[in-house]
Amino acid sequence: MTAKVIDGKAYAEGLRVRIAKAVKELGAKHGLKPGLAVVLVGEDPASKVYVANKAKQTVEVGMNSWEHRLDAATSEKDLLALVDKLNNDPAVHGILVQLPLPKQIDSTKVLNTINPAKDVDGFHVVNAGKLATGQDSLVACTPVGSVMLAKDALGKLDGLEAVVIGRSNIVGKPVAQLLLQENCTVTIAHSKTKDLPGVVRRADLVIAAVGRPEMVKGDWIKPGACVIDVGINRIERDGKGKLVGDCDYASCSAVAGSITPVPGGVGPMTIACLLHNTVRAACAQKSVPVPEM
Ligand SMILES: Nc1nc(=O)c2c([nH]1)NC[C@@H]1CN(c3ccc(C(=O)N[C@@H](CCC(=O)O)C(=O)O)cc3)C=[N+]21
């Protein structure tokens, strides 16, 4: 079997067209222009790729975009002061503080200082808790985008065996919560899991979010399964830089029923979902109904 390639880039483009329409409508009907502030501390290569794409796409859908670049040596106090300023700026509806943060800064403290209503990453403990208890909340972008692509490929997810590889707060745990809401039987596997290949082989739906280049091999995949590869790893091959996922694409795509490529899979969905969350956050802050997107 050769897997159907799930085109995250095309799906995200469609979503952005709908978001742009919604933004236009909010401007015309309510004089509301959603705005997103991104804070980058220091220089992380993955974060730089993300920020460049994000800023461009935020403006393309008609929203305000602000970028705050701080020195790698910035103190926690100074970063918290900036977050506080953005919390109190009525033009800023969404705040994203790029991770990872330098060692001198406690990221949990920073994330929990963001006003939960402006937490478009969905990383604040209040939003994480609401997701876990089934309350309406801002949900982390990569998990939402991953589940959208899985539903696009499989239709209903009810009753499927889903295996999430990775237990991070930013992908593994929230994506598992979303899959539970979709009535999957969810297993969260991780580095201490015994017989990881055997566990993954049970899955109708595999979500790989470990951050290890090409770790998941084709013989771990149940024939016909859907593989959502969340990994974005920069590697050197044949003297050239290359982006690869957490799945070994060549062997996995020979066995899977459908698979997301890297690049062009989950990555573009993450940004589209960030814009989606920013519109939702802006509407909630201005007590305006959320347009269809
Ligand atoms: N608070 C916070 N939230 C994040 O969501 C967050 C973060 N910090 N820190 C960094 C990571 C990384 N990340 C990416 C998202 C999309 C692409 C993306 O669009 N990638 C393109 C390819 C880009 C290329 O070609 O280089 C793709 O996969 O097709 C990449 C990376 C979000 N992150």
UniProtKB/TrEMBL annotation:
Q: Which UniProt keywords apply?
A: Hydrolase, Oxidoreductase
Keyword Hydrolase tagged: yes
This enzyme's EC code(s): 1.5.1.5, 3.5.4.9
Name used for this protein in its record: Bifunctional methylenetetrahydrofolate dehydrogenase/methenyltetrahydrofolate cyclohydrolase FolD
Q: Which organism is it from?
A: Taklimakanibacter albus
Tell me the organism's taxonomic lineage: Bacteria, Pseudomonadati, Pseudomonadota, Alphaproteobacteria, Hyphomicrobiales
